[in-house]
Fold this protein.
Amino acid sequence: MVLNHGLPIFFILAIILYMPDLEELIYIIKEKNPVIDDASLELIETAFDYAAKAHHGQKRLTGEDYLNHPFNTAKTLAELNVDPQTIAAGLLHDIPENTDLTIDDLRQEFGKEIAVLVDGVTKLGTVKYRGLERYVENLRRMFMAMTKDIRVIVIRLADRLDNMKTLDVHPEEKKLRIAKETMEIYAPTANRLGIGELKGLLEDWAFFYLDPKNYQWTKNLAKERLAIQLKYIEKIKKILTSELRQNNIKNVILHGRVKHYYSLYKKLLRKDKDINKVYDLVALRIVVGTIPECYMVLGLIHKKWIPLKGRIKDYIAQPKPNGYQSIHTTVFTERGKIVEFQIRTEEMHDLAEYGIAAHWRYKEESGARKKQTIWIKQLLEIQKLIKDDKKYIQNIKLNVFQNRIFAFTPKGDVIDLPEDATPVDFAYHIHTEIGNKCAGARINEEIVPLNTTLKSGDVVEIIINKNRKKPNQDWLEFVKTNVAKDKIRIALKKS
Ligand code: MN
């Protein structure tokens, strides 16, 4: 079919489809934030027009208008429900690098706050190193920016997500390098900031390029099961809805969540590649108004169905180090059928999906969120201590992205440590003086040697000797964290 002006319809369609539509962005923003004021919407409009003008005539490697890229970045940010300044900065983020306009121009037009955000993203983006150096430099910039304004990182993550979607235009080597970087730096950073949704998407795109065979295998495996599971979840949803209504629990939102491919793949590797052993391919999320209601819902579920032993996890009482809170439980719904439930309040849900990006909407700092800030401070400490690149990178990998264990103080505070950490590491993570005066330790109320390896969930009590003058030199042989090593060395030098 040919239209009157002679262009084939698919061509017209392609043009129409590729036109970034401001209304589409505004729609997402209003949907996520119904009370947004006119001034904020105006800011977004102005930023959109400004970006459209600035990038006018520029094309991406894919052939589409360049504007599509900042526009998609802004859409992701809008989905994350960040503040309007961040969305505007997302629209403007490539202007200093790709056009004749400068940060000063942006400052004049949009003010200091937005200029600082764009400048932060620009500085993160211009890495000129290769190989290990590039990797280190990336991490360093990322963490520097984090401490200045965390929103810079959120923009950068949204920017990277859109770049992953169009990665195919690059040569193989570049494709793999970017995918690897996404898997090793960007996805773990999203995870650490508690932005679960972005982490899942970034990992899945990286997985797609880095390991296409296993990506397809996982996808096919999931597809078959998914159709059956989603249908079954609908049935459970109906049963639960009437149960909740009978018990007067109002304003409940129920929805199924499907596991991301990469996270499913990792789980399959742990479960003999048997999808029948993965109980949370689809989980039923229950979002309620208050914390007491969360526990009421848990009670109702356990009254109705039999829970699986050892599968009840109370991340409300004991949040994950990235701030994640929910109650998880897995139950037998009927013969051979197993369903996982995730129960949380609306605020917890927001924080689980959007993490640090959601913080601006909640004024009071909750305990879990304070912990995130502490984590960022710790990263900076590591950075200050280590000058040598190789050592730095090892430490980041060891201290930040590797498997972590979560031990508890007797009061229930979570201490986040790398695997194989000992009570001495634990002590120094609480306080330098507790480390220096450490004389013994109890794990789960039993006295243990100080070189014992801690496991997740251990309750650790440090026994202190107030008269102790300095740490023991031998501790250096077994401590795992750099925080502990450095503090021991400093204390020994002093004495
Ligand atoms: Mn960009």
About this structure: Residues 213-355 form a domain with the Beta Polymerase; domain 2 fold (CATH 3.30.460.10). The pocket of manganese (II) ion is lined by residues 69, 93-94, 159 (CB under 6 Å). Confidence is low (pLDDT under 50) at residues 1-7.
